Amino acid sequence: MIIKSSTVLRNDYGTISTLAHEKQEPIYITKNGEGDLVVMSIDAFEKREELIRLKAKLDAAEESRLSGEPTVSIADARKRIAEKYKNA
């Protein structure tokens, strides 16, 4: 976990920006000794958002499976994909 004060952000933005891009993780910014903000690179943020969307899709698929909806085996899925490519 990276923690920096708001003073560092205000006085040395370049260091915070470089750190965010190099570490690819959130930087916690404190104000008066308490947590205030989180800063991260756009790339790290977009990767994090994509992971959240993927987890939501996986959760929905697992709920469907547990509720008894029909499933497809990997072998059947591969066969269906191969047929679609052959017919395309």
Describe the protein's architecture and organization.
There is one protein chain. By secondary structure, this protein is an alpha+beta fold. It contains 4 helices and 3 strands; from the N terminus they run βααββαα. The protein has a 3-stranded mixed β-sheet. A hairpin with a 2-residue loop joins β2 and β3. The protein is elongated and about 60 Å long. The protein starts with a strand and ends with a helix. The mean pLDDT is 95.
Keywords, please?
single chain, 88 residues, alpha+beta, three-stranded mixed β-sheet
| Rounded radius of gyration (Å) | 22 Å
Structural class: alpha+beta
**Strand share of the residues?**
15-25%
| Helix proportion range | 55-70%
The overall strand count is: 3
Identify the strand order in the major beta sheet: 1-2-3
Order of helices and strands: EHHEEHH
Query: What overall form do the CA principal axes indicate?
Result: elongated
**Regions with pLDDT < 50 over 5+ consecutive residues?**
none
Distance between the termini: 50 Å
What is the mean pLDDT? Answer: 95
Task: Give the helix tally.
Answer: 4
Summary of the model, kept short:
This protein has helices spanning 6-11, 13-23, 42-66, 74-87, and strands at 2-5, 27-31, 34-39. The chain is an alpha+beta fold.
SSE blueprint and pairings:
Layout: E1 2-5, H1 6-11, H2 13-23, E2 27-31, E3 34-39, H3 42-66, H4 74-87
Parallel strand pairs: 1-2
Antiparallel strand pairs: 2-3
